[in-house]
Design a protein that fits this description.
Largest sheet of chain A: 5 strands, mixed
Strand order of the largest sheet of chain A: 1-9-8-3-4
Distance between the termini of chain A: 38 Å
Number of helices of chain A: 0
Structural class of chain A: mainly beta
Strand content of chain A: over 45%
Order of helices and strands of chain B: EEEEEEEEEEE
Number of helices of chain B: 0
Oligomer: heterodimer
Radius of gyration of chain B: 13 Å
Chain lengths: 114, 113
């Protein structure tokens, strides 16, 4: 499973756009990039998944350059409730969670201030 | 929809005691897994299952046993609890059809004295 590197923590203010970048230099051809959000005392929650270019949903956007060695999670106009830990994961598609030693790593702790 | 249900939410054990953390999902998902999360750290995979009757070890399996007799249930057993097993445990399930999205339970906080 491709190893990922993310910033340990980030601070932002309400209403700002937040971009969290994840490096995955040894990503494999079949790997997808998935982001999760975790609030204190809760299990992680799926945010968004992509393979290449740009993916957007009601919560976030995911930007993946052509070489796919990094990806950026973009959260538009954050609020206090977006304070959480964000995890970047890389795995090979539908079967990636079926025993590929899924590794969440330490994630990025986002603190949104008023 | 219940999703993934874990019980108990909190448990205190003494060293050497045994217990079982229960996990049940009502989404007919093939894949189920157990993770532990230590303070300030990410999640580490303990055991996983790709279907009823099939289990395998994850990253940190020592001290834990699992079984998968039904699609719905995936209990995690601690046979002889140790203080190093003090952690928050999360159960997750997923279906291949959802391209890898994991659905997590709310967690079980275990303290071993």
């Amino acid at each position: 499973l491709a190893k990922t590197t993310q910033p340990i923590s980030m601070d932002s203010y309400e209403g700002q756009e937040v971009n969290i970048t994840c490096s995955h230099n040894n990503i494999a051809t079949n790997d997808y990039i998935t982001w999760y959000q975790q609030f204190p005392s809760q299990g992680p929650r799926f945010i968004i998944q992509g393979y290449k270019t740009k993916v957007t949903n009601e919560v976030a956007s995911l930007f993946i350059p052509a070489d796919r060695k990094s990806s950026t999670l973009s959260l538009p106009r954050v609020s206090l409730s977006d304070t959480a830990v964000y995890y970047c994961l890389v795995g090979d598609g539908p079967k990636w969670n079926a025993g590929n030693m899924l590794t969440f790593g330490g994630g990025t702790r986002l603190m949104v201030k008023p | 929809n219940a999703g993934v249900t874990q019980t108990p939410k909190f448990q205190v054990l003494k060293t050497g005691q045994s217990m079982t953390l229960q996990c049940a999902q009502d989404m007919n998902h093939e894949y189920m897994s157990w993770y532990r999360q230590d303070p300030g750290m990410g999640l580490r995979l303990i055991h996983y299952s790709v279907g009823a009757g099939i289990t395998d070890q994850g990253e940190v399996p020592n001290g834990y046993n699992v079984s998968r007799s039904t699609t719905e249930d995936f209990p995690l057993r601690l046979l002889s609890a140790a203080p190093s097993q003090t952690s928050v445990y999360f159960c997750a399930s997923s279906s291949e059809k959802f391209t890898g999205e994991l659905f997590f339970g709310e967690g079980s906080r275990l303290t071993v004295l």
